[in-house]
């Protein structure tokens, strides 16, 4: 079984919308939209991985203005890769304060309401992330 630990960041705005990455053409699991972040490398904390990944994916220097809201672990069958995957997601949020970003991975980004985000094509574990963010007070 394939195992992976990742750190994810959900930027939210004053309308309680979340910023999602357009993963079409870049997806490893068939998702069309996803969250910013990625794999935790050996020797990294989830926070260090998050800072590195946001720099790589968005060219943003993430400060300590983010908070961890939970950890989600699940196993699902990855149809594209043909194996079971166990993914442990460290989920962080940060209020978007008009930082200038450049998308370096994927096809761009878009703001979604939580209801709209739940209707996009996500990897199965990201659906749990949407449920978690629904339980979190964003403002």
Tell me about this structure.
The chain has 139 residues and is of the alpha+beta class. Helices cover 21% and strands 37% of the residues. It has helices at residues 46-58, 114-118, 124-134; strands at residues 2-12, 18-22, 33-34, 36-39, 66-78, 83-95, 109-112. The strands form 2 sheets. A 4-stranded mixed β-sheet has the order 4-1-6-5. It has a 3-stranded antiparallel β-sheet with strand order 3-2-7. The longest helix has 13 residues, at 46-58. The chain is globular.
What's a quick, concise take on this entry?
The protein has 139 residues and is of the alpha+beta class.
Low-confidence regions:
none
- What is the total domain count? 1
Mean of residue pLDDT values: 85
The proportion of residues in beta strands is: 35-45%
Q: How many E-type strands?
A: 7
CATH architecture: Alpha-Beta Complex
Shape: globular
CATH-level-4 superfamily name: Nucleoside Triphosphate Pyrophosphohydrolase
Terminal-residue CA separation: 39 Å
H-E order: EEEEHEEEHH
Helicity level, as a percent range? 10-25%
**Sheet bearing the most strands, described?**
4 strands, mixed
User: Quaternary arrangement of the chains shown?
Assistant: single chain
The name of the CATH topology is: Nucleoside Triphosphate Pyrophosphohydrolase
Structural class: alpha+beta
Itemize the secondary structure elements and their pairings.
Elements: E1 2-12, E2 18-22, E3 33-34, E4 36-39, H1 46-58, E5 66-78, E6 83-95, E7 109-112, H2 114-118, H3 124-134
Parallel strand pairs: 1-6
Antiparallel strand pairs: 1-4, 2-3, 2-7, 5-6
């Amino acid at each position: 079984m394939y195992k992976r630990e990742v750190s994810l960041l959900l930027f939210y705005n004053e309308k309680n919308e979340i910023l999602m990455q357009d993963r079409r053409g870049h997806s490893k699991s068939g998702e069309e939209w996803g969250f910013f972040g990625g794999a935790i490398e050996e020797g990294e904390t989830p926070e260090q991985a998050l800072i590195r990944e946001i720099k790589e994916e968005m060219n943003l220097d993430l400060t300590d203005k983010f908070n961890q809201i939970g950890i989600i672990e699940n196993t699902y069958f990855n149809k594209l890769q043909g194996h079971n995957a166990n993914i442990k997601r460290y989920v962080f949020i940060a209020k978007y304060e008009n930082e200038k970003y450049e998308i370096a991975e994927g096809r761009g980004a878009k703001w979604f309401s939580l209801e709209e985000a739940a209707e996009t094509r996500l990897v199965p574990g990201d659906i749990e992330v949407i449920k978690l963010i629904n339980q979190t007070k964003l403002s």
